[in-house]
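Can you make up a protein sequence with its backbone structure tokens?

===
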Amino acid sequence: MRTKRNKLPYAAALAWLSAVLMPLGGMGAANAGNIEAGKAAAAVCVACHQVDGGGMAPAGAEPWPALAGLDAGYIIKQLNDFKSGARKNVSMQPFAQMLNDQQVTDVAAYYASLPLPAREAPEADRELLAHGEKLALQGDWDRYIVRCVACHGPGNAGVGSDFPRLAGQLPEYLRRQLQAYRDGSRSNDPQDLMGSIARRMSDRDIEAVSLWLGSQPVQK
């Protein structure tokens, strides 16, 4: 005889998520930066993140995320985390440390002002994409995997400075970050939200949701 799944953990998880997100809701505003000054300071960024801010993922090499259109506050936080060592990356840290506080703000304003370049959707198995769509939009509460849109907002277009846009991001980069959250090599997320989710995800989960999110158009 099949037993009913206990709904209490589900309700408790939702309540916990709401409690964690409430204090983060007003943290998206960033100090205004100078876009033109940011463009000049970003000259050191274009080799990896490209002139249009679209990023790149060379085969067999480290993927560099698309920065164009990301929330300025999110970019500021990540650059400051690279500078302080709260987020570790041997390639990014020296570049971040080259920027003073005003340049960090200006670079963030510049990239936030850029439209995300159009790119072809990654090729993937339909079944795998369907699995990724389910995780992104519905989650998997049997395993306490929270759906991406719960934090990253409608269309996974991002919410403030803590939850970046995922739609249209390079799948290779998304995969690398989920793996880093899972193995603990990245831990600069608020309240270990991403770490606690990624540790419940299989390799197939990570591959599927990364591919599906990367194939999604960016909501205007």
